[in-house]
Amino acid sequence: TYTFVTEGEHLELTAVTKELSGSYECIASNDISSPDVRTVQVTVNYPPSISTARSTGTAVGQKGVLQCEASAVPRADFEWYKEDSRLFNGLNGVKIENQGKQSMLVFFNVSEEDYGNYTCVAVNTMGITNASIILYGPGAMHDVNGAAALPRASVCLLLTVAPLYLLRF
């Protein structure tokens, strides 16, 4: 809660951030009558910012859900892509569910072809942003950033490092 006190007819807000959105009361008073109070709603528009982009592991034949959440004013519209191809609701066994600031890409029956990298795009009149989200199988391992890696890639790395280690002796 912010309180601004000013003498005169104007309130000037500088260095405006989205936190300054909200209701403001203007109170006019004098010694003759009771104060007159009016409320003004201030809306600060800002581009989308993705706060949640959660990768998930799902077994073949199961239901899988990728989630993306973005804050924005005006509210963001969402688009989903796999590689360079835009996904559309109801096609290729996926459903896109948008509710407020959250979008979900739902797979009703995950197949091997569904595994991979997806991009959630959030856009409004102020800007655009995106996040990468991975649908992976139950055998995949993850790095510290949450990216999936196939177990055989780790085995190859181990086999490459072992001979180098032995060569030192």
UniProtKB/TrEMBL annotation:
It comes from the Eukaryota. This is Uncharacterized protein.
